[in-house]
Amino acid sequence: MAQASGPSGPLKGLRVIEMGTLLAGPFCGQLLGDMGAEVIKLEAPGMGDPMRVWGQEKAHGKSLWWPVVARNKKSVTVNLRVPEGQAIVRELVAQADFVLENFRPGTMEKWNLGYEELKAINPGIIMIRVSGQGQTGPYSKRAGYGSIGEAMGGLRYVCGDPSTPPSRMGISIGDSLAATFATVGALAALHHKNQTGEGQIVDSAIYEAVLNMMESLITEYDKTGYIRERTGAILPNVAPSNVYPTADDKMILIAANQDTVFRRLSAAMGQPELAEDERYATHAARGAVQVELDEMVSEWTRTKDADTLVQLMEEHGVPVGKIYRAPDMLEDPHFKAREAIIKVMHPELGDLQMQNVAPKLSLTPGAVHSPGPDLGQHNHEVLTGLLGYTDEQLTGMTEQGVI
Hints:
The protein is of the alpha/beta class. The protein is about 35% helix and about 15% strand.
């Protein structure tokens, strides 16, 4: 898919003023921008979002995370701590649909940019607030990171092997979940605004976003006293469904825990009698001998390479998947056919491959039209074109540290 030349998608024509740093707020901005909204990101003069330098690997000294999380955004430098910078924010909010922030609760109010102040300027403004513990409650003023939200929301405790302390997911899942829920809330608030003209606050807390992904964990404890524990690569009593070894030293995931699917796996293994054996014939029976069954499947998968196993499973209608890393994704024909990964031209780094917009819409698909911008790249465009400042005023504000 060719890189889009400008904003496109179902949210085209909507404007987001993004404030805040790192991931939880900015990922919400990325999702809105992916679907066509104009996202004006406000950053501290001379510093910018720390995401500009985050990431394990860099190219030419530049972050390779920033081009993704800040894609489709415009960068404007504004000092939010001074009255002149706060005045710029109010002017922008007057012409915006959303204002997005992820500072510690109370910070926007300290800067005279709380919801009541912004609502007085723009009654229809939707204020998206992402934080660790939410805007209310005894923990609201605590500093909140994604890792803390993952711990409090219950995710960390159930992740990893039971023989080790709780593990992290390997990605910033708490931040991303809070951002995703914030996006859902923002679009729900937009629907209400379209019906009534009223704006409102969207209060997305990291720990609550994580909590909402925890299935029946709370209800299980409430009614039975059961506490879920870490189980590694398996779900207890759900078998066979695990990561299995292959003859070519790869890993493959086979999920054949349903009765009909287990019959098909047994046939693929050349042992159809397993499905009739009372030890394995039902879901409950297989769960009782989960370790034994996984060892049996592993012995069989070790005799074949990963590609052969995938082909066999597909022929027999058994869910299967290789454990992918980035090189596997880039080579996979399905990823290519659906354009799940695209190339985005960066002015200094050249073509950058990154994930495409999701989900796919049939009539108004979103698109990536630009990678993360340079700090203050759009100062002139936004401040003169949208707000009407003169070049002389911009020069003065730059000298005064306002922008």
